């Protein structure tokens, strides 16, 4: 795996970690301490805030997991990739998007800029 693929794999480990302890460890492995995450619904900095955003998404979408789609495209310290939020029970994917990450020298994520391409309709 190249450094971009490794970083993206760690990213999905964090988003799919099953409990708070595993999530905290996965976030620390994926992001630098003052790492950031920004998408249309959240803007946070630091491991605790990152873990809280991920935990909130897991609560909102219980029974779903984040899956990488396509390939990772990277150059310099930047990479982009697509993803879907997939139901474990029926395979539906109501949410999809793509993210752009910036890597630190140690290969961990410094920043994430997330974009939502598909979201469920609001009632």
Automatic annotation (TrEMBL):
Occurrences of domain SnoaL-like (ranges): 8-111
InterPro entries, per this entry?
Answer: NTF2-like_dom_sf (IPR032710), SnoaL-like (IPR037401)
What Pfam family does this protein match (any one)?
SnoaL_2
Look up the domain of life of the source: Bacteria
What protein is this chain from? Polyketide cyclase
The opening ranks of the lineage are: Bacteria, Bacillati, Actinomycetota, Actinomycetes, Kitasatosporales
């Amino acid at each position: 795996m190249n450094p971009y693929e490794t970083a993206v794999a760690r990213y999905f480990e964090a988003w799919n970690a099953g409990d708070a302890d595993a999530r905290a460890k996965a976030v620390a492995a994926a992001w630098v301490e003052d790492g950031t995450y920004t998408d249309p619904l959240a803007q946070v900095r630091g491991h605790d805030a990152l873990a809280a955003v991920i935990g909130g998404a897991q609560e909102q979408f219980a029974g779903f997991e984040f899956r990488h789609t396509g390939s990772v495209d990277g150059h310099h310290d930047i990479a982009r990739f697509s993803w879907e939020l997939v139901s474990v029970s029926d395979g539906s994917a109501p949410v999809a998007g793509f993210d752009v990450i910036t890597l630190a020298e140690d290969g961990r994520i410094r920043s994430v800029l997330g974009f939502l391409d598909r979201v469920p309709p609001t009632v």
